[in-house]
C-alpha cells in the first residue's frame, strides 16, 4: 500500500481536494446516464461503485474528521448502498499509512527523541492505519507494545471538516433546520478523540470499572511513553472481530463473545452512565482464549440523567401502551416540539412508536437470539421504509436531543455487531457485575 508523506491540513487544500472529487462524481453521473440506455441492469450498481471509490480515495488522503465520517457511515448497512458500505469499511483499520520519515518527525516533535531512542525495537511500518491515527509495534525488554501515532493536523482541521461535511449530511439525512448543537456535539467528540492524554485517562478508568465482566480484557496503557499525539499500550494478540468471524467459530463461541460484548455495553450505559461510543469491528479483538479485547477509548459519551431517564422510559412496554405518557416522553426528549402542528404531532408520534416497538425488542426480552433473521429483517425494512418516506422528506425530520446522536449511533453499531456475531445472549446478565 502506498505510504503518505504529507496530509493536507489547510482549509484551502482540504476544500480543493473535495471539489476535485465532486468533479469526478459529476463525471460518474454523466457515464451513468449514458449507461442507462445501453446497460440498464448494471448502471445503478456501477454508479454506486464509482462514486464510493472516488469519495473514499479522497477521504483517505484527508484522513481525520473527514475519514471518520466514512468510518461512521460504513456501519449504516441498512441506509447506504452496499458499494459504499464495503468501500467505507476500509476506513475502520486499513488506510494508507504515514511514511517512516513522517513518523520519526512526529516522535521528535513531541518527545525530542526518535522512536528508536525510546524503545528497544520499533517497526517503521504501521500495523493498522485508520481515520485519526496509525499503530506501530514496539518493544521494551520482553514487553511488546502498540504505539498509536496521530496524523499531523487532524485536530486543527476538525472545524474545517465539519463545515465541509455539514451540507452533505443535511442533504443525505434530511436534516434541514438542524440546530448547530448537533454539529457542535460531533465536533466536541472528534476533538476529544484527538487528545490522547484524555484517552489514556479514560482507558484506565474504563479498565478499572469493567474489570469484573467475564471474558473481557483490556490493554495496559503507559503514560511515560504517551503524550497528546502519541499513546502507548500493551500489544494485544488476537484477530479483529470481523476477521475472527471469518474463521466461522462455533455457536458456543459466538454466544460467549456476543455475551461479553453485550454485557460490556449494558454495564457502561446503565451502571456507569458513560460508554465507548465507537462500536465498530476495528475496535475489538478476539484472543486465542476466546476473550473479547476492547481497545481505543477515544470516543466516550456521558449520559446526563435528564436524558437517560426519559430515553429508556419512552420505550418501556407500559409507556408504549399509554398514548398520553408516550407523548409526554417524546416531548421531554425534544422529539415533539411546542411549535408542532396537529399533523406533525400525529405523524411523529406514530413514526417513533413504530420505530421503538421494533428497535427495542432485544432489551425487553429475557434472552435474545441475534442469529434469528426476523429481527434483522424488521430493522432493515423499517430503515428502508423511513429513508423512502416522502412525507418525512417534506417535513423537518430532525428530531430529538443532541444526546441522541452518539447514544443511537452506539445502539445501531452494537446491534450490527451482534447481528454479525449471531449470538444468543442473556439480556440482563450485566446486572450481576
Distinctive features:
433 residues; alpha+beta; five-stranded antiparallel β-sheet; four-stranded mixed β-sheet; 11% strand
Short précis:
By secondary structure, the protein is α+β, with helices and mostly antiparallel strands. 54% of the residues lie in helices and 11% in strands.
What does this molecule look like?
The structure is a single chain. It is built from 18 helices and 13 strands. Among the domains are: 11-92, no CATH class; 304-402, no CATH class. The protein has helices spanning 11-38, 40-62, 64-73, 82-88, 100-111, 115-118, 158-172, 180-193, 196-209, 241-245, 251-272, 305-313, 317-320, 323-332, 342-359, 373-387, 390-394, 404-421; strands at 121-122, 128-129, 133-140, 143-150, 216-217, 230-234, 239-240, 274-276, 284-286, 292-294, 300-302, 367-369, 424-426. Strands 1, 2, 3, 4 and 6 form a 5-stranded antiparallel beta sheet that branches. The longest helix has 28 residues, at 11-38. By secondary structure, it is an alpha+beta fold.
Amino acid at each position: 500500500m502506498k505510504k503518505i508523506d504529507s496530509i493536507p491540513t489547510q482549509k484551502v487544500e482540504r476544500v480543493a481536494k473535495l471539489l476535485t472529487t465532486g468533479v469526478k462524481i459529476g463525471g460518474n453521473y454523466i457515464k451513468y446516464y449514458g449507461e442507462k440506455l445501453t446497460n440498464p441492469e448494471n448502471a445503478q450498481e456501477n454508479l454506486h461503485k464509482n462514486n464510493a471509490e472516488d469519495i473514499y480515495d479522497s477521504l483517505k488522503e484527508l484522513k481525520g474528521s473527514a475519514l471518520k465520517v466514512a468510518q461512521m457511515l460504513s456501519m449504516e448497512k441498512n441506509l447506504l448502498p452496499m458499494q459504499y458500505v464495503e468501500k467505507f469499511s476500509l476506513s475502520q483499520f486499513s488506510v494508507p499509512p504515514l511514511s517512516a520519515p513522517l513518523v520519526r518527525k512526529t516522535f521528535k516533535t513531541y518527545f525530542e527523541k526518535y522512536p528508536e531512542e525510546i524503545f528497544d525495537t520499533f517497526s517503521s511500518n504501521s500495523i493498522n492505519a485508520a481515520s485519526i491515527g496509525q499503530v506501530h509495534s514496539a518493544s521494551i525488554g520482553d514487553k511488546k507494545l502498540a504505539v498509536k501515532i496521530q496524523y499531523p493536523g487532524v485536530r486543527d482541521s476538525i472545524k474545517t471538516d465539519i463545515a465541509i461535511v455539514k451540507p452533505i449530511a443535511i442533504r443525505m439525512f434530511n436534516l434541514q433546520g438542524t440546530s448547530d448543537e448537533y454539529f457542535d456535539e460531533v465536533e466536541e467528540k472528534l476533538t476529544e478523540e484527538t487528545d490522547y492524554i484524555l484517552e489514556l485517562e479514560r482507558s484506565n478508568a474504563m479498565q478499572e470499572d469493567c474489570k469484573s465482566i467475564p471474558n473481557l480484557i483490556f490493554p495496559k496503557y503507559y503514560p511515560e511513553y504517551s503524550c497528546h499525539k502519541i499513546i502507548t499500550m500493551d500489544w494485544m494478540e488476537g484477530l479483529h472481530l470481523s476477521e475472527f468471524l471469518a474463521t466461522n467459530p462455533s455457536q458456543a463461541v459466538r454466544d460467549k463473545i456476543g455475551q461479553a460484548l453485550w454485557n460490556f455495553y449494558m454495564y457502561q450505559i446503565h451502571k456507569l452512565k458513560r460508554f465507548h461510543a465507537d462500536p465498530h469491528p476495528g475496535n475489538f479483538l478476539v484472543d486465542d482464549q476466546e476473550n473479547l479485547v476492547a481497545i481505543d477509548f477515544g470516543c466516550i459519551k456521558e449520559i446526563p440523567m435528564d436524558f437517560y431517564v426519559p430515553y429508556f422510559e419512552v420505550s418501556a412496554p407500559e409507556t408504549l401502551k399509554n398514548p398520553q405518557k408516550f407523548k409526554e416522553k417524546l416531548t421531554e426528549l425534544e422529539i415533539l416540539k411546542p411549535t408542532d402542528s396537529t399533523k406533525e404531532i400525529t405523524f411523529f408520534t406514530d413514526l417513533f412508536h413504530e420505530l421503538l416497538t421494533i428497535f427495542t425488542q432485544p432489551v425487553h426480552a429475557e434472552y435474545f437470539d441475534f442469529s434469528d433473521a426476523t429481527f434483522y429483517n424488521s430493522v432493515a425494512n423499517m430503515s428502508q421504509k423511513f429513508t423512502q418516506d416522502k412525507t418525512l422528506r417534506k417535513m423537518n425530520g430532525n428530531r430529538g436531543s443532541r444526546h441522541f446522536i452518539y447514544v443511537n449511533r452506539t445502539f445501531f453499531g452494537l446491534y450490527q455487531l451482534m447481528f454479525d456475531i449471531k449470538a444468543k445472549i442473556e439480556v440482563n446478565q450485566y446486572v450481576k457485575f
